[in-house]
Amino acid sequence: MIDAFRLSELNAGVWRRGDWVSVYEDRRLSPAEILLLLRHREPLSGRVLELGPGAGRVTAYLAELASELTALEISPDMAEACRRRVPSATVEVRDMQDLGGIAGGSLEAVVGTCNVIDVLDDGERRALLAELHRILVPGGVLLFSSHNRDHRARRPWEPRDWRNPKALAGDVVRLRDGVRNHRRLHRFERDSDDYTLRNDEAHSFSMILYAIGAAAQQRQLTEAGFTLELCLTDDGEPVDPGGAPDRSPYLHYAARCSSAS
Ligand SMILES: C[S@@+](CC[C@H](N)C(=O)[O-])C[C@H]1O[C@@H](n2cnc3c(N)ncnc32)[C@H](O)[C@@H]1O
């Protein structure tokens, strides 16, 4: 049985290698990310913490808004790229689960884009949400995205799109690594009522990532003291969490810290 420590260590080991810095050296935002930033300009203009900033794709925009911006990144190479891109941000090489040094009620917003919290197991995820509730001011916001359990996951031998020759060529190039990683990792996959741990296609199927449906995510946020305000598809369409939306591989959430811890 895979335990929480081993799952997050497995994923952290993959990220620490710093193999994908160039993949995240991008400035493009998804429609959902643009909407979340626009709608939460006010809390984002205060003290902001970013979880797993990568090479600073979103950090660059947060730095334009925030009065104080700190980012916690587990990969030294990603952290270095992020510092180069956004010199005004304080970028620490640190596990995002290590928030003990941050004072309670000291931040107006926490941001974790591109499914960063999905590297954690269920217990770790719940503990992180409780910690984020502790460090946010009452009324502070948590903006994040997560893999959508109701969207069917692809296996390494399934092409993303038969009609797209460029995507097809990429899938063929990555097929061998994908199948090898999947063979090694699929025994760690788990299904529970509220979430799954699955060998996701990201980076040639090299990680086991958490996926959750919108209704279960809403319950989890409520248990941690947040109120879900908005749930969006990648295209920025609002979705009803109860409707089990399956058309978007990721869902983007805005939740508000309902009360002091
Ligand atoms: C999918 S990338 C997203 C990067 C960025 N947020 C973006 O949207 O472009 C996830 C990032 O989180 C970092 N990461 C993974 N696990 C982490 C952890 N436990 N603590 C801090 N950062 C972590 C990875 O190194 C990587 O840079």
Q: Can you give keywords for this protein?
A:
10-stranded mixed β-sheet, alpha/beta, 35% helix, 261 residues, binds S-adenosylmethionine
Task: Characterise the protein shown here.
The chain has 261 residues and is α/β, with parallel strands linked by helices. The protein has a single domain (4-153, 208-257), classed as Rossmann fold, CATH 3.40.50. Helix content is 35%, strand content 25%. It has helices spanning 4-16, 31-39, 41-44, 59-65, 76-85, 122-135, 165-185, 202-205, 214-223, and strands spanning 47-51, 68-73, 90-93, 107-112, 136-148, 190-191, 195-200, 207-212, 226-233, 250-257. Strands 1, 2, 3, 4, 5, 6, 7, 8, 9 and 10 form a ten-stranded mixed sheet that branches. Strand 1, helix 4 (59-65) and strand 2 form a beta-alpha-beta unit. The longest helix is centred in the last third of the chain and has 21 residues, at 165-185. The protein starts with a helix and ends with a strand. The relative contact order is 0.16. The site of S-adenosylmethionine has 19 residues, from helix 1 and strand 2.
